[in-house]
Amino acid sequence: MKGVKAAFISxxxxxxxxxxxxxxxxxxxxxxxxxxxxxxxFGPVIDTEDSESVLAELKTRDFDFIIAHITTWxxxxxxxxxxxxxxxxxxxxxxxxxxxxxxxxISPASPAGTSALLFPLRQxxxxxxxxxxxxxxxxxxxxxxxxxxxVKAIKALNGARVGSMGYVDMGLYALMLDxxxxxxxxxxxVEDVFAVEVDQLAENAPKKEVxxxxxxxxxxxxxxxxxxxxxxxxxxxxxxxxxxKAKERNYLGLTMKCVYGVSxxxxxxxxxxxxxxxxxxxxxxxxxxxxxxxxVILKQLxxxxxxxxxxxxxxxxxxxxxxxxFTPFDMTQGSKVRCMCAGWGGFTGLYETxxxxxxxxxxxxxxxxxxxxxxxxxxxxxxxxxxxxxxxxSEPMPKFPSLLLNLDCxxxxxxxxxxxxxxxxxxxxxxxxxxxxxxxxGIEIIEYKGA
Length: 451
Description:
By secondary structure, the chain is of the alpha/beta class. It has two domains: 5-156, 3-Layer(aba) Sandwich (Rossmann fold), CATH 3.40.50; 158-446, L-fucose Isomerase, Chain A, domain 2. The chain contains 14 helices and 21 strands. The protein has helices at residues 18-34, 48-58, 76-83, 110-123, 141-157, 179-186, 195-203, 207-220, 229-249, 258-266, 271-277, 289-302, 411-417, 431-441; strands at 5-11, 38-45, 65-70, 91-95, 99-101, 104-106, 128-132, 161-165, 189-192, 221-223, 251-256, 282-285, 307-314, 319-322, 337-344, 347-352, 359-369, 372-383, 402-407, 422-427, 444-446. The chain is elongated, with a radius of gyration of 26 Å.
């Protein structure tokens, strides 16, 4: 796994065979390296003198998180002496299980060491995740790699930027996010993308580049009828301009005002623009800052595209969600994405009309309250809905990218706690990684915990 490095520290006790401590910890260390984790071994740490020695070594190295491998019972002060110097760094406490030899379970008493350790860790303000192996079972290497991915995401977002062309569309409060809380907890910045600059870049886009993007659209999209040259040209020019801006500023994501922005002042809807941008970076409409950051987090943790969807109907036990004409291509079914020209509220343009993929998915939504970031977290199973359309669209009405969500929490809990008309989804169950991400970034999770 590139982009993240661990310090693997073995902790033990003088009364246990040193060759056992060295052999067990070295074997586990070598195995996680084989599985792709960049790591360096330290220890074994047995007493406070070892703590000081290892601490001196650690201070000369660069790493992103610590694996505190409690190989056997160990003395709490020995561990704390090392870890308290890195209290702002994620720590994975890992306890191995015993092995049965000749019919007898031989226990290294790691659970004794970890149960004596966890409470003091909390008192010292050291943020940790604890995993433990069962006796005679395979060590939980996959859990270590999951944790490494969380740390990698936290590292990638610290100092990262996203861009917003315009401030929250329609003045919607639910799209806002506390910028100071965002910087304080995630280290991220939201930059203003000046629309005049983008318009100039679009107007002066090289003809060759515009033609290449137009051909890209024809390759990716299955149009209900041949789009006009003007339609392709407008989309291609804005895609070119925003790709240039994203590359220049190294944005992880972009959002724009679509209703009272591009649609009103540039004369076309930017749904396909966002879909093309989403092939490389995270994209979302309506200058939805909270949704954009949520999507960036989901993409960093999962390695997949994430998107936003809007609530349209609350059924007795399901929720209909959709979006008027935009979703990342790789979240749809089929080799090409259906697309049509349609109009609503006096705005016309090209809209995606695909069937979305179905199955298990994670729902998340970041928001800020009283100067702190919070996140709604839920899971659901998505299925394709029956025929439906939003009021006010011209005929033929477009078929929105949409899903019928079978929530894994009570619908009333969801309705009461969802903080916006938009939610953000990614396929698969990523709740464990999101819980860890939020724990280490100080984000409070709002999640159904049972009756």
